[in-house]
């Protein structure tokens, strides 16, 4: 029996009008391809689990995204798109997706991988160099003793998340706003991705 999660219904209803039919279409295809799939929300967006993560979808202001967790192992799926999450690029209409029968077949293929216990291939990561805290962020931390203490108490990966978030800002005004926000969150003892933690 198909189990629908009311949180996914709410997510779809809150999406932009163009996105609703796309999300409903994807949802139908996933349930058709794997009737035992479980709907849930992960990282703030609908995901589908069947003996592990199967796939997920998301809606943004001007496009949707859809992707399989083990896409590299599926026949007929392009590599991850560089323009959007998932393997199908920026989805602006149902016409941007493969035909429904192909989507259903891909879901079946992904479910079979999970049935067989096949693990998703891990990307090889280059070791990251030592963490360099930018001068402006270091100066701001030195002025806020509580924020600095929290930052220094975090693991290297948590400190790196803050540093990368700040240094990835393209404009100086954005960088300054991020430093201010980082100081507020650090003063409260929050990690960079505190919103997504249970």
Structure description:
With 198 residues, this protein is an alpha+beta fold. The protein has 2 domains: 110 residues; 62 residues, no CATH class. 43% of the residues lie in helices and 11% in strands. It is built from 7 helices and 4 strands. A 4-stranded antiparallel β-sheet has the order 1-2-3-4. A hairpin with a 3-residue loop joins strand 2 and strand 3. The chain is elongated and about 60 Å long. The two termini are 29 Å apart. The mean pLDDT is 89.
Shape summary: elongated
Low-confidence stretches: none
Backbone CA Rg: 20 Å
Strand order of the largest sheet: 1-2-3-4
The number of distinct structural domains comes to 2
- Major sheet details: 4 strands, antiparallel
Q: How much helix is in the residues?
A: 40-55%
Rounded average pLDDT? 89
Order of helices and strands: HHEEEEHHHHH
Strand content: 5-15%
Number of helices: 7
What is the tally of beta strands? 4
N-C termini distance: 29 Å
Could you say which structural class the secondary elements and strand pairing correspond to? Answer: alpha+beta
């Amino acid at each position: 029996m198909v189990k629908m999660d009311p949180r996914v219904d709410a997510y779809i209803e809150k999406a932009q009008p163009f996105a609703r039919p796309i999300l409903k279409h994807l949802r139908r295809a996933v349930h058709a391809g794997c009737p035992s799939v479980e709907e849930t929300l992960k990282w703030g967006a609908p995901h589908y689990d069947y003996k592990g993560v199967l796939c997920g979808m998301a809606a943004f202001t001007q496009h949707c995204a859809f992707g399989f967790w083990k896409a590299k192992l599926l026949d007929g799926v392009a590599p991850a798109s560089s323009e959007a999450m998932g393997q199908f690029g920026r989805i602006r209409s149902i016409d941007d997706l493969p035909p429904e029968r192909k989507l259903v077949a891909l879901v079946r293929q992904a479910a079979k991988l999970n049935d067989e216990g096949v693990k998703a291939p891990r990307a090889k990561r280059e070791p990251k160099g030592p963490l360099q805290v930018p001068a402006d962020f270091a100066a701001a931390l030195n002025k806020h003793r509580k924020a600095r203490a929290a930052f220094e108490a975090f693991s290297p990966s948590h400190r790196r998340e803050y540093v990368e978030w700040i240094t990835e800002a393209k404009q100086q005004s954005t960088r300054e706003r991020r430093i201010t926000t980082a100081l507020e969150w650090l003063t409260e003892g929050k990690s960079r991705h505190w919103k997504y933690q249970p």
